[in-house]
Amino acid sequence: NTPSAGSANAIPFSSSFMKVSGGYQALYFAKYLTGKAWRLKEISFAPSSNFTTFTASKLEIKLSHFTGSALTGVLANNIPNPVTVFSGAFTWSPTPGTWSTIGINSNFVYNGTDNVVMDLRYAQGSGGGSCYYDRGAIPRNWTYGTTTGTAPSGSDVNAGIKTRFTVDTTTIAASGSPAVGGTVDLNLSAPGDGGLPYQVASSLGQGPIPIGARSLTLTLDGLFEITVKGLVPMIFSKYSALLDTNGTAVARIHLPKNSALIGVRFYSAFVTLKQGAPFGIQTISPNALVTITK
Q1: Strand, helix or coil for residue 15
Q2: What would the mean pLDDT of 13-36 be, rounded to a whole number?
Q3: CA pseudo-torsion sign 41, 208, 290, 183
Q4: ∠ CA(35), CA(40), CA(45), 5° rounding?
Q5: Are 43 and 164 in contact, with CB atoms under 8 Å apart?
Q6: For labelling alongside 149, which of 74, 127, 205, 236 has CA 20 to 30 A away?
Q7: How far is CA 202 from each of CA 182, 209, 236, rounded to the nearest angstrom?
Q8: Mean pLDDT score of the chain, rounded to an integer?
Q9: Mind listing the pLDDT tens digit for each residue in 131-154?
């Protein structure tokens, strides 16, 4: 995990290799990905000493869960459920030998179990150089001369560039039965916040609600008010309590048996509370979507 050592390779950020356009896929095994769910905050690579400013008219980075044990020869098959975490024009002036961030502009939520594949493609690249890698960890595919090729131009089982994922392990996940009359569990996890009070809220939209420099991705609507004030505890239970020593808890939604609710979508999120934290809020979770069914 040292960003200033290793072998250096031109793939994927060297225009001398990629010419006009190019692509890169890397397979990250679950054993390296913490063994718990997380939300991606940033991606970093480790440029070597020959790196200059890299530009591309468009860069696109996608991540996908992947249950296979090796990259296949069909690029699309390696990203069966892609989530775009960066898309747009790109200029990168990293500091060689350091973890250098990309600046992602969207989220990816890891399920805590599967492998992950990154698919990185750009058009009209210029400048750039090599990044460090260590043999033995990260399989890769690459392609050049096209952004839509179905097969890699080459592959290597252990020469993917060093990659750092900066993640937030605060998660909220819905389970159980979202059918009318059913019960949905909201599984809360905020490692490091064990024993702290928490507050869950639900709303019909994703807001966001600004909280200083941070935000809660819910909407200030009637449902939000009902759940925060605990007005209907027979439906929304354990929306406010203490996390256990591991930083986990379960809130529950007992859905009324009313067919008029079928198709309603709502979002839930939680915060942990701590005296001295900005606005008294230590941690803010992402939201979880529930769609009520028959």
Answers
A1: helix
A2: 79
A3: positive
A4: 95
A5: yes
A6: 127
A7: 17, 12, 9
A8: 91
A9: 999 887 899 998 876 545 578 888
